[in-house]
């Protein structure tokens, strides 16, 4: 038995495979941050803190003439998004239905993915997480309203990183509206703007709902660390004759090791 309590749910192995598969399908495209930063783990539900490799003084030692310091750690935060599934829909799945209503799961998956992106890129003060945008020492640059101006802004961000000794390749996280503009736009001569931007970056462009504008960052590694305790998993809460109450849960911390490895472009 583990804390997810899945064995108490009135859900068959086939039903759990359906739910896990749907969650993976919905989460994977939206977890933009994970495709651009270092992912460490998962270390398990019991993993509670990230070692920062630093110390802080202790006001008083236990013994006169003995110095004391305390190790600093960043405690992991937990995110949870609740959802429900109809018992009758699960029964229909067992009968072979192909159109099982999992809209509540889809919504929960999107919400928790957005929350993770926001924490990584824009921070989560209550969990002592400083986001990439806030940590960046550079003045934020405008991405602009017109997609035709995006290549100039992105090239400027790459040049800024290069001039500060931050090597590539580079990647870019785009907010929902900015990503939509990019994929809809063809430049003069019919060349896709998406391909042009990828050539400038020499790396991926990811859809990252929750991001305000865009963030260009180095993919050289070691600059942005996502420390995962429990990876995104479905757990059981309770049920009655009609509905099974479930949730998606994860635990993580995030550390910016090299603040100068990213440039924010405002919307």
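Sequence proposed for the structure above (267 residues):
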């Amino acid at each position: 038995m583990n804390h997810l309590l899945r064995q108490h749910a009135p859900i068959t192995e086939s039903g759990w495979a359906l739910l896990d598969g749907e969650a993976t399908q919905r989460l994977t495209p939206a977890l933009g941050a994970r495709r651009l930063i270092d992912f460490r783990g998962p270390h398990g539900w019991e993993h509670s803190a990230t070692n920062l490799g630093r110390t802080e003084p202790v006001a008083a030692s236990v013994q006169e003439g003995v110095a004391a310091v305390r190790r600093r750690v960043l405690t992991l935060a937990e995110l949870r998004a609740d959802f429900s599934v109809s018992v009758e829909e699960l029964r229909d799945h067992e009968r072979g239905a192909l159109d099982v209503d999992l809209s509540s799961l889809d919504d929960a998956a999107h919400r928790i993915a957005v929350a993770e992106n926001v924490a990584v890129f824009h921070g989560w003060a209550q969990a002592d997480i400083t986001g990439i945008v806030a940590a960046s020492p550079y003045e934020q640059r405008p991405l602009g309203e017109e997609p035709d101006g995006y290549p100039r802004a992105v090239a400027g961000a790459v040049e800024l990183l290069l001039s500060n000794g931050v090597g590539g390749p580079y990647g870019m996280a785009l907010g929902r509206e900015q990503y939509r503009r990019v994929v809809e736009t063809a430049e003069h001569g019919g060349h896709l703007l998406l391909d042009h931007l990828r050539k400038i970056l020499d790396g991926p462009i990811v859809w990252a709902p929750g991001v305000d504008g865009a963030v260009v960052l180095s993919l050289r590694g070691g600059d942005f660390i996502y420390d995962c305790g429990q990876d995104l998993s479905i757990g059981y809460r309770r049920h009655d004759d009609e509905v099974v109450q479930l949730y998606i849960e994860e635990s993580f911390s995030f550390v910016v090791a090299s603040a100068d490895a990213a440039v924010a472009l405002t919307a």
